[in-house]
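pasting for the record
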Amino acid sequence: MTGRSRTSPSARASLWRHPDFVRVWSAAAVSILGSQITIIALPFIALTMLGASVFQVSLLAAVEMLPFLFFTLPAGAWLDRVRRRPVLVAADIGRGLALLTIPAAYILDSLTIEQLFVVAFVTGTFSAFFDIADASYLPAILDRDDLVDGNANLQISYSVAQIGGPTLGGNLIAVMAAPFAIAVDALSFFVSGGFISSIRRRETKPERRVDASGQPTSMVAEVAEGLRYVLGNGYLRAIAASTGTTNLFGAALFGVFPVLIWHELKLPPAFFGTVMGLASVGFLAGAAVSSRLPNRIGLGRTIVLATALGPPAFLLLTLTPASLNVAAVTLFVGWFVAGMSQVIYNVAQVSLRQAITPSDMQSRMNATMRFIVWGTLPVGSLLGGVMATLLPVRAALVIAAVASSAAILPLLLSPLRSLREIPMEASAAGSMGGATQPSSIGQTAVAARTRRRPEPDPTD
């Protein structure tokens, strides 16, 4: 046990009195609220206004996530060299401007499916840089012992936004043209960028890394170091494999899900948005228990339990019928459980990742994790499109939901399943045996923290 003293959670000031954290929280809430509108509006435009095929809808989802395959690894190395706050602001502004081209083209009667592909790729590129910088920025403004509470509170902001967002999106589409609804999302990115730009704490610019000879290390060497760090760590490797599997089959399912909702079942947008908004209290429920459950049953069991809840929820969503009354119940229960399990999983595993990773490795660790776990998303979307082209849409959805249950295997076969608390030292995270000393994160709150189609956000 190290001799460094720690402040008990009861003695620490509430994060709601931390002005910089409140700004981060506010930016996240506004941004995700707007994004819930585009989640509904974009595939609605493609299907009902532009006559897109099943494969084109799934391809649209894939194109948005391609930047996570192309850019995350070099972005992670670059972000470990620069201050992250300016990147966050620039990415928000870039996404807002890209989205505004959709209502502009609609007004000019020139909106095409090709433009949606371009906008999806551009916003996906900005999102790739934003998400890596965002995941690495929180440890720069919060103490290590506050990470779990910070991540849990951020999940609350996501949860609140996901409750109101689908309802707002569905009703906006019902009263105005869907491209104009997307303009509301664009505005949310500008507001989010304003909150982040007002953060007072200034980051120290990271020092340039040098090799043994004293020469600056190359980007390739730093990317390779990030890969070795993640793949050589038993906890991170299991999380990457499990999350990547969930996202692969989740993308296959949700890339085609809009076709079931809008094309086959023809559910009214206001009805669908309202039901999904109400069901999003599952995200809030997950956030409420995410700081307590690991302290009760252990961090590893919490992650395993949350993973096990996902596939049944996915399967229930695929069985949504045309009857509005039964569809309301099916969508509500499936979405509630899926959202709750996702938040519990993310709070636990992201906090673990942040706590065990050195500050100068944060961006590269997050970039490598994003490359692995979000890199499966475009592959999954294309897989879903192919299956839905060759098979009935509902059959393709059921196959994807059942296959997602394989995500639990990497966790059960790893040392993570028996982990009780976050190891105190970063080096302990890679240990495959022997006792590790817990930090007060695990002792006090938890032993350990994705915007597109109508789906829970991709798991981090």
